[in-house]
Design goal:
Length: 83
């Protein structure tokens, strides 16, 4: 058996370290793709909101409130006492 075929602790540790680095990078790429999709949806909805706001009619003046009589708190039913 040649020296290149021997499995040593050092070679095994190097291999596992290299594989671990690749796994970390792969997981980060997956998270980046997920975030990109989410950001595109958010950006699309923001653009849609801006278009809807730009096309929205101007608000009309509010109608004045009808006059109301004062509330007599002594006649209100108390359902529960707040503590």
């Amino acid at each position: 058996m040649s020296l290149a075929g021997k499995i040593t602790a050092r070679r095994l540790a190097d291999f596992l370290s290299h594989a671990s680095e690749h796994e970390t990078i792969r997981q980060q790429r997956i998270r980046d793709l997920e975030a990109k999709a989410i950001l595109e949806v958010i950006a699309g909805s923001v653009r849609q909101d801006l278009r809807e706001t730009a096309n929205a009619p101007e608000p009309t003046a509010l109608a004045p409130l009808a006059p109301t009589k004062p509330v007599d708190f002594a006649t209100l039913t108390a359902f529960e006492e707040f503590q």
